[in-house]
Amino acid sequence: MEVLTLLEITAVLWGTYLVVTWWLERGRLSQLTDKTVLITGCDTGFGNLLAKRLDQLGLRVFAGCLTAAGVAELRQSCSERLQPIRMDVSSSDSVQNAFRVVKETVGNKGLWGLVNNAGINGDMAGPMEWATKEDYQTVLNVNLLGMIDVTKTFLPLLKKSRGRVVNVASAAGRVAVPDAGPYTVSKFGVEAFSDSLRRAMRTFGVKVVIIEPGYFRTEINNKESALRRMDDTWQLQSPETKTEYGEEFLQAGKDGIKASGRFMQDPVAVVDAMAHALCANHPRSRYVIGWDASFIFVPISWLPTELGDLAVRLVAPEMTPTPACCKNKQ
């Protein structure tokens, strides 16, 4: 009887928490036209869609683009409020140039939002053993070190407005996937950096939000590009490694990439979460987006290690095909 009472109290408290949270999250900021936001990685994907969404909502947007083509596309498709700027987050000089442009515009008013969206998969595809140190450096320089550099550079402007930092992590920052080593390592780093920053910035009134998307239809998940990267990575392997893994392993990995397209989701859901994080009175600290992130990756991350490893093998066998040299040992 006492156990039942405890469960009832827990259920009531949990239900109350959910209702209060739902109610708080409904409120939106007034005077959005007074807010200025910087978004990185706006050439394509989430960043491009978010820049256009915020422009439609009336915010002033600085859209960081790596390419001149990205700048031109946004200038053509958005209002004069949106200012595209060339920005390479892996270059401190480029980040400083962007900072000068933004600071000159916002002045003492400060910057309301920073969305660290820029990210890459890198040039390799395949098991972790195939990745070189340079492969890790390339991805970390953009996905993690670039994010840290941009955040530290713009924090003084965010403190002035008691604004918000929105960092794009990934469901792969919850569960390490063996066929995307550099990307996964970078996203685990994003999670750690964001958690630490959120706790450090609370006393300054700066909110830090983590976005954790699953598998969405963006350029970073382009199948043709992934297949090409896997072929290129395979060609760089030594004859010994090719013999050890075998052509069947390579083909199984490519088949997994081809099949993954069936599970891609509409990126609008991620943009909705980003816009809420910037425009809600009470944003969440973490947004888990996508059925795969919510019902596969996050639950697996809660499991004991051995069970989590088993779940990955069962749920996504294409991530862990068996090398030729290991088939007779199973």
From TrEMBL:
<keyword id="KW-0560">Oxidoreductase</keyword>
<protein>
    <submittedName>
        <fullName>Retinol dehydrogenase 16-like</fullName>
    </submittedName>
</protein>
<dbReference type="GO" id="GO:0008202">
    <property type="term" value="P:steroid metabolic process"/>
</dbReference>
<comment type="similarity">
    <text>Belongs to the short-chain dehydrogenases/reductases (SDR) family.</text>
</comment>
<dbReference type="InterPro" id="IPR036291">
    <property type="entry name" value="NAD(P)-bd_dom_sf"/>
</dbReference>
<dbReference type="InterPro" id="IPR002347">
    <property type="entry name" value="SDR_fam"/>
</dbReference>
<dbReference type="Pfam" id="PF00106">
    <property type="entry name" value="adh_short"/>
</dbReference>
<dbReference type="InterPro" id="IPR020904">
    <property type="entry name" value="Sc_DH/Rdtase_CS"/>
</dbReference>
<dbReference type="GO" id="GO:0016491">
    <property type="term" value="F:oxidoreductase activity"/>
</dbReference>
